[in-house]
Amino acid sequence: MSRPDATQLRLPEAGDVNRIVPPSGITSLLTAFVAAAMAFLSVFALALWFATERLAARWASELAESATLRIAAPQAELDAELAAALRVLDQTPGVTSARALEVAEQRALLEPWFGPDLPLDDLPMPRLIEVTVDRGIFDAEGLALRLRAEVPTAVLDDHTRWRAPLITGAKRLQLVGWLAILLIVGALTAMITLAASASLAANARVIDVLRIIGARDRFVVRAFTRRFTLRALIGAAAGTVLGLIALAAVPQGASAGVLFADLRFRGPEWLAPLAIPLLAAAMAFLATRIAALRRLQETA
Amino acid sequence: MSRMDMGPRVIELTGVSYSYGDRPLFDALDLSLAPGSFHFLTGPSGSGKTTLLKLCYLELAPGQGHVALFGENADDLDRDGVAAIRQRIGIVHQDCQFLDHLPLSENIALPLAVAGRDPEPERGNLAELLAWVDLGDRANALPPELSGGERQRAALARAVIMAPDVILADEPTGNVDWEMGTRLLMLLVELNKLGKTILVATHDLGLIRQAKVHVQARVLRLANKSLTLAGSDL
Fold first, then answer.
1. CA–CA min distance B231, chain A (Å)
2. What pLDDT is recorded for position B40?
3. Which of A183, A280, B91, B117 has the smallest count of CB within 10 Å of its CB?
4. Which of B57, B125, B66, B122 is nearest to B92 (CA)?
């Protein structure tokens, strides 16, 4: 009987669960990949959510504080009507400023729709007055009545008509963002539950051995939850970083014209993408724990 | 069967019945193991030897009757309680199972880690144990690299690392040749001489006769749904 060199013996560590579950290669990679993909999508869903929130808030405030007056008088009376309208506005409580748009400005507004070659000088063009108001004081109906009497060719548009649908649209987009986030979290949880269940089934023998040698349930559960939590954390962290890089590559706000909203995170919004890996790890922890406890209930 | 000895019992089964589906395996069976005793459990294949052992280490629960271990009624134990009891029982399966990705030394020391004990101070004991089961030069081998006899001896080493009060062995010599069977038997005899309670399920009557030369062992026969003390012809 040869006695081995005791100092050379490899020993497990007390309560050490890291090496209990055998390495599972492809399952491990797949779990991390799914977490990464979901985190990547979450970054965009969150960016969309915040962008729509900002957009709705901006539309709401900008449109709420402005109104437009259109003077559609015959060409000969146009200047007089414009002056009368400005006078009325000047006397109206709640109007903080009123400015008649220059003809050149109006032409610039129409150019994107009609092209540069349209002979606008030959067309009867109404004049526009841009009005900023203090909503707390401004009485749109009262102003409309007064204008009807003093400047009958003026039409007041206080933007109420199209402000509401725009804000509703933005809110719905925000809801879609929420739904996307919920679906992503649900899908990630489902995938990790499946992966954990598969791993638990594949390692049924490991669990049996551990139970036979006196392992408590929490020891076995810890061995599996630790592994899947780490995989999800690492995968989601990588996916979040990739998502943020991809987001930075998307044309943003002013530089991209009107087609793209500004998707970049701002200030405290950064906490949301940074929380994605932690949330993924927490979901993985819970999903694996529930799956492991359910599996253990089937063992003696 | 009736109680064999008076005094505190390591394992006590009282009026235990167990069925697989509609097929009853035992009926109102009693078993009582005194500390330091050596018992063989024998009987024809399918008579329920393995099932009886599983009832003893609480892997199965009886349909009727009660199981008590070290004076504790199994009905009163929760899952943590069962785990704690198992840390006091060394179990050797016929198809001894290990964690195949860990070297033998880690597998044998695993019960210590599982129980939250630091294996480091047990390094010397582990070396002694490996030498005792003649696996000193196989400490770094992975379980799939071991032969059947080596696996059985490794399972025995793992079963005793926690210095359990009782060893339950299910056909420990079932997959090994006569010589290896004798070596395993002698290891069990040594443990019994150290005061451990031993219960070995086996159908190998030669092994039983051989053991009786070295130790005062009782032979229990499981047949026809009941447990009886075998005659002195064994």
1. 33
2. 95
3. A183
4. B57
Residues composing chain A: 300
Q: Counting one residue from A and one from B, how many pairs have CB atoms under 8 Å apart?
A: 122
Min Cα distance B218 → chain A (Å) is 26
Q: Quickly state the pLDDT bin for B2 (edges 50, 70, 90).
A: very low
- Look up the pTM and report it: 0.74
Give yes or no for a contact between B134 and A17, defined as CB atoms under 8 angstroms apart.
no
B chain contacts of residue A4, beta-carbon cutoff 8 Å: 105, 127, 130-131, 136-137, 139
Phi, psi of A88, rounded to the nearest 5 degrees: -60, -45
Residue B94 dihedral angles phi and psi, to the nearest 5°: -65, -45
Average of per-residue pLDDT across A82-91: 92
- Mean pLDDT (whole number) for B177-203: 90
Are B59 and A300 within 8 A, CB to CB?
yes
ipTM of the complex: 0.87
For residue B233, what pLDDT is reported? 54
**Stretch A185-199: mean pLDDT:** 88
Distance from C-alpha of A222 to C-alpha of A300, rounded to nearest angstrom: 18
Distance from CA of B115 to the nearest CA of A (A): 7
